[in-house]
Amino acid sequence: MHVQPGMRCASFDGDGDRIVYFYKTKDGKFSLLDGDKIATLFASFLSDLVKSSGLKLNLGLVQTAYANGSSTNYITEIMKVPVACVPTGVKHLHHKAGDFDIGVYFEANGHGTVLFSDAAQKLILMQASNNSLDENSRHASVQLATTMNMINQ
């Protein structure tokens, strides 16, 4: 397959335990999304859905000391999403992500996921099935529920 500039691509890594996202820039340069970028994109997407849904959920992002400082600043200052810092290793990231209703974490190498607490899952599913909500809130809730069901926690 010939990758064209602007095309969004994904591939499993060598042992199949993560997806690697990449694209070509307008000037034809290869660009790989690292864990910081992936986590930021997930947090941005989920933050927008939580706000639009009207649900009062605590969304947070977990990083290690190896995280790009610019991403941390962007997440906290621009996106207004809390960031927790833990020692390196998925076991530390995963544990801390569980402190949030929705916890996002990705190591720099791209290993990571999003966790939804049991309480958050129940609220999201309940709201997604609430036909008395305004269209925007219900649509965001349905998107949250669909996203939650697609993610391997």
TrEMBL record:
<dbReference type="Pfam" id="PF21404">
    <property type="entry name" value="AMG1_III"/>
</dbReference>
<feature type="domain" description="Phosphoacetylglucosamine mutase AMG1">
    <location>
        <begin position="34"/>
        <end position="153"/>
    </location>
</feature>
<dbReference type="GO" id="GO:0005975">
    <property type="term" value="P:carbohydrate metabolic process"/>
</dbReference>
<dbReference type="GO" id="GO:0006048">
    <property type="term" value="P:UDP-N-acetylglucosamine biosynthetic process"/>
</dbReference>
<dbReference type="GO" id="GO:0004610">
    <property type="term" value="F:phosphoacetylglucosamine mutase activity"/>
</dbReference>
<dbReference type="InterPro" id="IPR016055">
    <property type="entry name" value="A-D-PHexomutase_a/b/a-I/II/III"/>
</dbReference>
<dbReference type="InterPro" id="IPR049022">
    <property type="entry name" value="AMG1_III"/>
</dbReference>
<protein>
    <submittedName>
        <fullName>Phosphoacetylglucosamine mutase-like</fullName>
    </submittedName>
</protein>
